[in-house]
Amino acid sequence: MSPASPAFPAHGRPKEAVLAQMRAARDHDVRWRQGRAFSLVFHGGDDVSAVLQDAYTLFFSENGLNPTAFPSLRQFETEVVAMTAGLLGGDAHTVGNLTSGGTESLLLAVKTARDWGRAVRGVTAPEMVLPATAHPAFDKAAHYFGVRAVRVPVGPDFRADVDAMRAALTAQTVLVVGSAPQYPHGVVDPIEGLAALAAAHETLMHVDACVGGLMLPFVRRLGYPVPAFDLSVPGVTSLSADLHKYGYAAKGASVLLYRDNAVRRHQLFAAMDWPGGIYASPAIAGTRPGGAIAAAWAVLNYLGEDGYLRINRTVMETVTRLQAGLRAIPGLRVLGQPEMSVMALAGDGLDIYEVSDELTARGWYLDRQQFPPSLHMTVHHGHAAIVDEFLADVAAAAEAVRRPSLRKTVNRTVVSAANLLTRWLPEAWVSGLTRRLSSALGGGGLPGRSAAMYGMLGTLPNRGDLRELVLDLVEGFTRPATPAPRSNR
User: Fold this and answer.
1) 3-state DSSP assignment of residue 175
2) pLDDT of 71-111, one tens digit each?
3) What is the DSSP letter of 28?
4) Are 245 and 214 in contact (CB under 8 A)?
5) pLDDT, average across residues 288-296
6) Mean pLDDT, all residues of the chain
7) Residue-wise DSSP of 310-376
8) Which residues, listed in sequence order, are joined to residue 333 by a DSSP beta bridge?
9) Rounded-to-integer distance, Cα 188 and Cα 226, Å
């Protein structure tokens, strides 16, 4: 039976008691401070963290909703936009805003394209054309804003296929999308080709550089090959770059840049007839944490170009060591040719999901991917100290997977049986089995060892039923426990 949900506290508790309980809860989180997580957190060093905390705390209560009340935040945001625009090929006409993260930046880019298409070209059924590897936040935007997302298969190198995307364009296309790099495999799409395609079609072109925007320019300066990807490319009309990723800013901070204000104008919102007064905002959020804006400004000024070059030199040296070590382990391979520090690790005769289970048991956190099965790795400054330890554990994990065991035999049998059943059973029966699987999971998330689960889910043909299963899991993450009994007092 689930534990009872906590009631609203009748009385306050001492500060130290509250903080002690929070620290105890944190002890169960992934140990990112020790470099154990290859996603979710970007650690620029203890000195950077100290600057972020001080800057964030200094503006902890300030609100970016009204820049006339807090001109300091307006100054910080304007200067962050200008600094990042200069880094990413912008000029004196470039405009932009800070957002809460990459998802909000992409939502706004799609919303802006929809409204631009409606106002400038009279498009009533807007579409956007994007590679299969583009971030699912674009699908979220399509769902929210009524834009049809036309996903196009990528080439064998995992990069966008310009010719295939050209064939997908229609009179209703309001946006072409490319990534620098795309998240699953860490490769940069052919932005110049996509931008030329968009310009010839007289439509907008967005570059999702949320992952690479604050790193690729410095990687290029360090002498690594980086293709053209930013606002300097003719035809690129907007670009997003997350400051809280390789800018090492505090969450949440992303910047969304436009070539000029003519397009950005379609992003803005104003309500004129509310009794509470005129309400206007440039982004999705109304209230915006002043701390995130201040911390972004602080870290850019604290590190400067020389600081980012120093950090990125360490990161790329770490990537080189990791890739060489991973490629030397029999049965594993790095997919594609990543330009920076994002990559995917796949099996070559080994079940990569079983390797992942072994790494999880050893305290490492790597995201599992599909089509093809792989493990995602985002390498940052905090990983420089753990390369040897990680490679040793990967080698041990691969060796453990190579050894036969009853559990692995059962896992493979389950996956094979599921694949066979889904080919032969009626669709309604498969849907029923999927619902039973969802019920068995109970909304509590995936088990600690999940190779069989991922192997089965990745091959189920009924993706609609699978979507419902995933939504059940998402609901379960925050579903209240069994309610506490009501008091009669």
Assistant:
1) strand
2) 899 999 999 999 999 999 999 999 999 999 999 999 999 99
3) T
4) yes
5) 92
6) 87
7) HHHHHHHHHHHHHHHHHHTSTTEEE-S--SSSEEEEEESSS-HHHHHHHHHHTT-B-EEETTTTEEE
8) 346
9) 8
Spatial CA neighbour of 214 closest among 391, 86, 363 = 86
Closest CA to 414 of 455, 363, 463: 455
Tokens of 445: 């998330």
Reduce the DSSP state of residue 148 to 3 states and report it.
strand
When comparing pLDDT for 177 and 466, which is higher?
177
The DSSP symbol for 60 reads: S
Give Cβ neighbours of residue 402 (< 8 Å, ≥ 6 apart): 331, 350
Tokens of 140: 């979220």
Residue 127's pLDDT is 98
Count Cα neighbours of 340 within 13 Å in the Cβ-side half-sphere.
31
Pairwise CA distance, residues 428 & 442, whole Å = 21
Whole-number CA gyration radius for the chain: 24
Q: Which CATH number is 55-300's, of 3.30.830.10, 3.40.50.150, 3.40.640.10, 3.30.300.20?
A: 3.40.640.10
- The HSE-up count of residue 163 (CA atoms within 13 Å, CB side) is 1
pLDDT of residue 278: 87
Length of the chain: 489
Residue 251: how many other CB atoms lie within 10 Å: 19
pLDDT category at 3 given cuts 50, 70, 90 is: low
3-class SS at 451? Answer: helix
- Mean pLDDT to the nearest integer, 362-373: 92
Residue, of 131 and 470, whose pLDDT is higher: 131
Q: Which residue would you say has higher pLDDT here, 431 or 119?
A: 119
Query: Tens of pLDDT along 111-166?
Result: 999 999 999 999 999 999 999 999 999 999 999 999 999 999 999 999 999 999 99
Query: How many helical (H) and strand (E) elements, i.e. helices and strands, does the chain have?
Result: 16, 13
pTM for this model (two decimals): 0.85
Residue ranges of the chain assigned to CATH 3.40.640.10: 55-300
In this structure, are residues 309 and 222 in contact, taking their beta carbons and an 8 Å threshold? yes
Sign of CA dihedral 333, 336, 339, 345: negative
Burial letters for 38-70: b for 16+ Cβ neighbours within 10 Å, e otherwise? bbebbbbbeebeebbeebbeebeebebbeeeeb
- Other Cβ atoms within 10 Å of 422 Cβ, number: 18
Q: How far apart are CA 285 and CA 291, in angstroms?
A: 15
- 207, 217 in Cβ contact below 8 A? no
Peptide bond before 181: cis, by omega within 30 degrees of 0?
Answer: yes
- Could you identify the residue written with the tokens 């509470």? 276
